[in-house]
């Protein structure tokens, strides 16, 4: 598994809402300024599914990031299985400096792990910036 982390200077309630509500997901779920997320759907419950469209702003490419929740503990943890069968575990922990978010995910086999770690970390950093600014 690959692990990434950040600490968001916000309340656990705000972090949970911004992480899970589609109107917020579309504001942060992309890795670089050339990309955006024009659409997000989220059925946040065990057995529920989610789908987020990530697209290049120039229209050259897009894909849907999809999965199904296997664990949802409000303000604490989310686990899901991606469309290709890989597993993701996310924990949310309140600390004196804010909410520590830790993501563990199975790597895919097409790209180097450092590249995958960098892409996922960039998205997590976008989330941190968005949650702290709004």
Automatic annotation (TrEMBL):
Residues 9-132 form the Activator of Hsp90 ATPase homologue 1/2-like C-terminal domain. InterPro entries: ASHA1/2-like_C, START-like_dom_sf. CDD domains: SRPBCC_CalC_Aha1-like_4. It comes from the Bacteria. Pfam families: AHSA1. Belongs to the AHA1 family. This is SRPBCC family protein. It comes from Flavobacterium procerum.
């Amino acid at each position: 598994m690959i692990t990434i982390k950040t600490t968001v200077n916000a309340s656990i309630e705000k972090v949970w809402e911004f992480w899970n509500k589609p109107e917020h997901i579309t504001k942060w779920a992309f890795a670089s300024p050339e990309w955006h997320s024009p659409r997000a759907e989220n059925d946040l419950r065990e057995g529920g599914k989610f789908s987020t469209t990530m697209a290049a702003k120039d229209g050259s490419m897009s894909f849907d990031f999809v999965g199904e929740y296997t664990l949802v503990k409000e303000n604490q943890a989310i686990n899901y299985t991606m469309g290709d069968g890989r597993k993701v575990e996310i924990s949310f922990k309140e600390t004196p400096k804010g909410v520590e978010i830790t993501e563990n995910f199975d790597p895919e086999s097409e790209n180097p792990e450092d590249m995958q770690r960098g892409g996922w970390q960039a998205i997590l950093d976008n989330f941190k910036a968005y949650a702290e600014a709004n």
